[in-house]
Amino acid sequence: MPTGKKMTAFDYINSFLLLSFSLLCLFPFLYVISVSLTDPEVYRPFAFTLIPEKFSLRGYSYILGSINFKNALYSTVYITVIGTLLNLLFTFTMAYGLTKKDLPQRNWIMVIVIFTLVFNAGIVPNFLLIKNLGLLNSYWALIWSAMINSFSLIVVKSFLQSLPEELEDAAKINGCNDIGVFFKIVLPLSLPALAAFTLFFAVGHWNTYFNALIYLSDAKKWTLQLLVKSLIVDANANSVQGSLTDSDQILPQETIRLAAVVVAMLPILVVYPFLQKYFAKGVLLGSVKG
């Protein structure tokens, strides 16, 4: 039976410190979930507890029954789904084109990409650009402004360069054109990178806050992050007033806020485990090869 390395005093101390730090990071999440599941009748402000005295889903039913919350959820899902699909399409097609050495002005295009990675136009020029394009107060202002990320493009390009060129040559001999090679050969071989960057782009769109704050003035088009900010920072629960079975019952504001926080972060936490096995592999391959 093989034996592992003997644990030293440093290993025990290091493990204890890492475990303690992990628990400290976990406690806020447990507290948020605990308060959101606490029955309003037994909720006590400023009382720290990790296990609800009495479980209740009334905070969630209150939130999910709100018209404003439904609008924010729709806005966030729409931006995330459409934005992620377009991010993947534009990033992978452009990266694939840049891997071709016979592409005209290929080096100059890469210089422009790297230049935008180092230098940013700033908030005011970006706002004026979105305004002149007529995209203010629309979902497309958030989607188009984050269409291609230079860092992601460079990593994907590096990953695609690591794929065997012989497979593309064989496909072209069998009658495939460049589009057929891309969709039938390149993309199936790029599943780890696709999964990794799907998670990157989806998390970015789901958590979009600053751009939404700048470009969206209509409260009906707010994203979940703006709504949660309104609840927590502005300390105003009126923005989630919605249909409630017992209109005379007023839930504690803290219960409503933290229920909104849980609903806002839950989808990403649910999706991540399904993409985790591709996550490290996809990023690593694109980072070290090419």
Helical residue percent band: 55-70%
Strand content: under 5%
Distance between the termini: 41 Å
Task: Identify the CATH architecture of the largest domain.
Answer: Orthogonal Bundle
Number of strands: 0
Key features?
290 residues, mainly alpha, globular, disordered C terminus, 13 helices, 2 domains, MetI-like fold
Quick gist of this model?
Keywords: Cell membrane, Membrane, Transmembrane, Transmembrane helix, Transport. Helices cover 68% and strands 0% of the residues.
How do the strands and helices of this protein lay out in sequence?
Blueprint: H1 9-36, H2 58-64, H3 67-98, H4 106-118, H5 123-132, H6 139-144, H7 150-161, H8 165-173, H9 178-189, H10 191-206, H11 210-215, H12 224-232, H13 253-288
Membrane topology: Multi-pass membrane protein
Pfam families: BPD_transp_1 (PF00528)
Organism: Paenibacillus piri
Describe this structure in words.
The C terminus is likely disordered. It contains 13 helices and no strands. It is globular. Helix content is 68%, strand content 0%. Helix 3 crosses helix 7, helix 3 crosses helix 12 and helix 10 packs antiparallel against helix 13. The chain is an all-alpha fold and 290 residues long. The two termini are 41 Å apart. The chain folds into 2 domains: 48 residues, no CATH class; 232 residues, Orthogonal Bundle (MetI-like fold). Belongs to the binding-protein-dependent transport system permease family.
